[in-house]
């Protein structure tokens, strides 16, 4: 005979009335029974109140923006006149003074109205997850920029904008070729918005992001103006253009003895050399590199000031350029390939030791190989590339793939193993005859670094080993985070 379980017995007792249970009933008033405590129901906790969502506030650009945008219709007219000067002159000569004044009286207010309306219908707002920009007068366009996909924000201040006290924000976003921009904002507003967006991208809460402020920076390098000017004078491109400006007109003079032909040839060449040199000097003047938790900060510009940021972990390749005329002074130029960014110059000119110390901030743990470490191709490579084969070199260690190119203008490319996306081996017909091969490594910036004219057996082993080093490097790489 099986005994009922406790649950079943309780169920039977609950189904009987109290008087039907007779003497077997046990309760608080039953004789000889101990009092049974009555369970007190626990208070039901009140549901937690959900935090109120922060209202999205839309902002307009700075009030001087309409003046900048009013130039758009005027620019169209000027562009047409430059493109077809004969037609523009014909139409202009047909106009009398009254018609011209009426045209200006219509064009100027229309341009002003266009600038005002485009400014009025442009708004931007920062939400919990994105930066939203609404533009368009007739056709509305809304750009949704995810905050976690922002990798750099540059602050640009052209000359007229500096006079007006405004600035432009340019955003580098993962997966886009061109930069989105907000032009123009007040300088204080632009810096505060940049700091807030970078804090949001770093993972700070929306309610505290605006309190983070701009991360402090420590200066690493400042290029003196005199050093920059001398380096530009010693650049091979400048001297090449000047030599062409002397040789070509001289030959034309001997052939034609025409002063106008000589001037028509010499002046553009001299102007091109001067424009290139002066343009670089104006753009790279007062070049300053600083270190902060959100990356390396670069400030430069004589007339137009630019504040750029090299995002941490986004650098795919570092390139050290050493022109021939710089070697006696041990000067180098450092360039970058950054995924999804157009920023390419890290240091315009600096002594090699200082440049390498800055590179150590961009690529932690990477040692720049010296000339003795770089291994040249075998001597039979001279049959494939006469003379210039001596400029090729290769060095590979546990952290970086380094390849050198160039004999007069040396270029050393440094690719961390974690940034290598693919590895390839190629052989031309003459290379196969000589037992040589090229090894190519592709990076995330859609660039390729090549180790030229390696021994075929060495290249095959390098291909296998580099693929393994790249897999290991990606597993051990630190996450790309802001303000780490």
CATH architecture classification of the largest domain: Roll
What top-tier CATH class of the largest domain fits best? Mainly Beta
* Helical stretch tally: 14
* Radius of gyration of CA atoms, rounded to a whole number: 35 Å
Q: Can you count the beta strands?
A: 19
Helix proportion: 25-40%
Beta fraction: 25-35%
Structural class: alpha+beta
For the biggest sheet, the summary is: 7 strands, antiparallel
Global outline: globular
Through-space gap between termini: 72 Å
CATH topology descriptor of the largest domain: PH-domain like
Low-confidence stretches: 1-38, 45-52
How many structural domains?
Answer: 3
Strands side by side in the biggest sheet: 6-5-4-10-9-8-7
CATH homologous superfamily classification of the largest domain? Pleckstrin-homology domain (PH domain)/Phosphotyrosine-binding domain (PTB)
Overall pLDDT confidence: 82
Task: Give a quick set of tags describing it.
484 residues, alpha+beta, PH-domain like, 3 domains, 7-stranded antiparallel sheet, 6-stranded antiparallel sheet, 19 strands, 38% helix, YdbS-like PH domain-containing protein, UCP026631, transmembrane helix
Strands, helices and their partners?
Blueprint: H1 6-15, H2 65-69, H3 71-83, H4 85-94, H5 97-120, E1 123-126, E2 130-135, E3 141-146, E4 150-157, H6 159-164, E5 166-173, E6 180-186, H7 187-201, H8 206-212, E7 218-222, H9 225-233, H10 236-256, H11 259-284, E8 288-292, E9 295-300, E10 305-310, E11 315-322, E12 331-338, E13 345-351, H12 352-362, E14 393-396, E15 400-405, E16 410-416, E17 420-426, H13 429-434, E18 436-443, E19 448-455, H14 456-476
Antiparallel strand pairs: 1-2, 2-3, 4-5, 4-10, 5-6, 7-8, 8-9, 9-10, 11-12, 11-16, 12-13, 14-15, 15-16, 17-18, 18-19
Helix pairs in contact: 3-4, 3-5, 7-8, 9-11, 10-11
């Amino acid at each position: 005979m099986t005994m009922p379980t406790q649950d079943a017995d309780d169920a039977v007792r609950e189904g009987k009335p109290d008087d039907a249970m007779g003497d077997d009933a046990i309760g608080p008033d039953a004789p000889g029974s101990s009092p049974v405590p009555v369970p007190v129901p626990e208070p039901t906790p009140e549901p937690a109140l959900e935090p109120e969502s922060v209202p999205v506030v839309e902002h307009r650009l700075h009030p001087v923006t309409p003046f900048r945008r009013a130039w758009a219709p005027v620019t169209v007219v000027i562009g047409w006149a430059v493109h077809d000067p004969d037609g523009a002159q014909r139409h202009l000569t047909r106009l009398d003074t009254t018609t011209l004044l009426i045209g200006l009286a219509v064009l100027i207010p229309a341009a002003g109205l266009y600038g005002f309306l485009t400014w009025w219908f442009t708004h931007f707002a920062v939400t919990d997850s994105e930066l939203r920009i609404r533009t368009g007068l007739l056709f509305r366009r809304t750009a949704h920029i995810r905050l976690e996909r922002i990798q750099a924000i540059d602050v640009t201040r052209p000359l007229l904008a500096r006079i007006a006290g405004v600035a432009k924000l340019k955003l580098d976003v993962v997966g886009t070729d061109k930069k989105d921009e907000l032009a123009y904002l007040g300088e204080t507003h632009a810096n505060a918005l940049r700091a807030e967006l970078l804090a949001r991208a770093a993972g700070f809460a929306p309610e505290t992001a605006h309190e983070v402020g701009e991360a402090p920076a420590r200066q690493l390098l400042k290029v003196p103006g005199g050093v920059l000017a001398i380096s530009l004078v010693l650049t091979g491109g400048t001297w090449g253009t000047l030599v062409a400006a002397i040789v070509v007109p001289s030959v034309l003079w001997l052939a034609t003895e025409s002063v106008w032909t000589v001037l028509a040839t010499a002046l553009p060449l001299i102007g091109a050399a001067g424009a290139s040199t002066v343009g670089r000097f104006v753009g790279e003047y007062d070049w300053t590199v600083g270190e902060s938790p959100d990356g390396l900060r670069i400030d430069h510009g004589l007339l137009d000031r630019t504040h750029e940021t090299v995002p941490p972990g986004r650098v795919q390749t570092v390139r050290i350029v050493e022109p021939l005329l710089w070697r006696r002074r041990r000067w180098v130029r450092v360039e970058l390939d950054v995924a999804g960014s157009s920023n390419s110059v890290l240091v315009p000119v600096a002594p090699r030791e200082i440049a390498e110390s800055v590179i150590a901030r961009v690529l932690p743990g990477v040692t720049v190989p010296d000339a003795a470490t770089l291994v040249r191709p075998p001597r039979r490579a001279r049959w494939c590339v006469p003379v210039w084969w001596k400029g090729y070199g290769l060095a590979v260690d546990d952290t970086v793939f380094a390849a050198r190119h160039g004999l007069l203008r040396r270029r050393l490319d440094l690719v961390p193993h974690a940034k290598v996306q693919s590895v390839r081996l190629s052989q031309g017909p003459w290379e196969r005859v000589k037992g040589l091969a090229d090894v190519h490594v592709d990076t995330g910036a859609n660039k390729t670094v090549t180790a030229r004219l390696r021994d075929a057996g060495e290249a095959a082993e390098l291909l296998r080993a580099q693929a393994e080093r790249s897999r290991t490097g990606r597993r051990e790489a630190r996450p790309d985070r802001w303000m780490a």
